[in-house]
Every structure is written in C-alpha cells, then in structure tokens.
DNA sequence: ACATTATGCAATGTATATATTACATTTAGA
DNA sequence: TCTAAATGTAATATATACATTGCATAATGT
C-alpha cells in the first residue's frame, strides 16, 4: 500500500484526510500493525485509483 | 458473497467454522449489516476459492 | 403434519480498530 | 547545519467487529 500511496504523490496525512481517518491509522496499516475494515480498504483503493486485489490481496502471507 | 458461498455448497455455519468465526458473523456480513475486517475477508476469499475483487469489490456502492 | 436443517435476529459481553494528543525520529531542502 | 515536513510511536478513550447464548422463523424432506 505504501508503494501505491507514494506513487500517487500523497503523504500519509493527505491520504488519511481523503479517507476520513487519522494519519496514525494509515501509518499503522502500512506497518502491518493492524487489520483495517473492508470499507476503509475500499476507500483507500478508490482514492489511490487501484483495486482491492492490487493493494490488499496476498500482501501478508504468500502461501496458499 | 452469498452467491459464492452457495456456489461452493457451504452453509453459513460451515463457512463460519472454516474461517473461525461464528455463524452470526457470516450472516451479518451477507446481510450487509457490518463491515468485516480485511483479514476475515481474505480468509473467506481463500475458503471460497475467489479473490477480494470478485467477492468484495464494488458490491455495496456502484458509483465512482 | 412432522422433524430437521438453515437462517434471522436480539441482548449482552469482550476484543480490537480507530480517535486524540503529544512527543520523538527521520528525511529533504535551504 | 538548520529547519520544516513526514513518519514512528506511545497512552488513553471510544466505537464497533465479533463472540455467546438463546429463541423464532423459513425451508426441505419424509
């Protein structure tokens, strides 16, 4: 997700404000330290012009 | 999501037990009454043999 | 009609996503 | 090197995902 955000030229704070969460929330998601809700994931995807699969599919565990 | 579950021949209870949540959780997600976590969405997708985009992308609001 | 299985739904409790505030650290530019 | 912007991180509070239990209703087969 960090790649997509940086590719969009947005800071954590800018992305956070566009999706109506705090900067900390974005930072913690990028750090893999928590587990965002589906609605937040969808908002992030729409803001970054990507899909769920591109940003969130098989990013944590590559197996299966 | 209900279509994919039914297509897999699983009941709510069977899917719930495979992804380690309760039947109620599956029922409420299918009813659109809450907003599952990303990890749960991913578990459901893997269990049903589909991807995030197929099951959860643009299912609630078609705009944008 | 009856039994059984699947699903809906409500009340209450717990875990955790997210907010808020604040400070520390890193990075980039002048 | 100095400054400012970007990011990391920690403490506490709140909202909500999810569990648990229990009962009601719908669907399906005999």
Structure, explained:
- The structure is a homodimer of 64-residue chains.
- Chain A is mostly helical.
- The first copy, chain A, has a single domain (2-54), classed as lambda repressor-like DNA-binding domains (434 Repressor (Amino-terminal Domain)), CATH 1.10.260.
- In chain A, 59% of the residues lie in helices and 0% in strands.
- Chain A has helices at residues 2-7, 12-19, 23-30, 38-48, 52-56.
- In chain A, helix 2 (12-19) crosses helix 3.
- Chain A is globular.
- Chains A and B meet through helix 4 and helix 5 of A and helix 4 and helix 5 of B.
- Chain A binds a DNA duplex (30 and 30 nucleotides) through helix 3.
List the helices and strands and how they pair.
The structure is a homodimer of 64-residue chains.
Chain A: H1 2-7, H2 12-19, H3 23-30, H4 38-48, H5 52-56
Helix pairs in contact in A: 2-3
Chain A binds a DNA duplex (30 and 30 nucleotides) through residues 11-13, 21-25, 27-28, 30-31, 34-37, 40.
Greatest interface (CB-CB under 8 A), with counts per chain: A-B, 16 and 16 residues
Helical stretch tally of chain A: 5
Which value, in Å, is the CA radius of gyration of chain A? 11 Å
| Annotated CATH architecture of chain A | Orthogonal Bundle
Summing up helix and strand content along with how strands pair, one would put the structural category of chain A as: mainly alpha
Q: What is the CATH top level name of chain A?
A: Mainly Alpha
